[in-house]
Specification:
Layout lengths: L3 H15 L1 H7 L2 E7 L4 E6 L6 E4 L7 E6 H8 L5 H6 L1
Parallel strand pairs: 1-4
Antiparallel strand pairs: 1-2, 2-3
Length: about 90
């Protein structure tokens, strides 16, 4: 079973490494505040080179995303539509 920690420690760093131009254009600090079981806070810092993913709230965010941990995993696995989840 994939957890948010798996996504932040493995999948997102691999995606950032595969798409450095996208990360460079992002140029933002994003806090992910995941609620519920397996939740926690992670920071994606695309203002530094190379971009970093860190557990915990690091730096002043340009955006904070709050979502249930289970929904976050479903979104990442393309099993849920984030727009539909937002309207629920």
């Amino acid at each position: 079973m994939t957890t948010p920690q798996d996504i932040f420690e493995k999948e997102i760093p691999a995606a950032m490494q595969a798409n450095p131009k996208v990360v460079k254009n992002l140029n933002a600090i994003i806090h992910f505040d995941l609620t519920g079981p397996n939740g926690g806070v992670w920071t994606l810092d695309a203002t530094v080179v190379p971009a970093q993913v860190t557990q915990g709230a690091v730096g002043k965010p340009d955006l904070t995303m709050t979502v249930g941990a289970a929904d976050f995993v479903k979104i990442r696995q393309k099993k849920a539509n984030p727009q539909m989840l937002m309207m629920q």
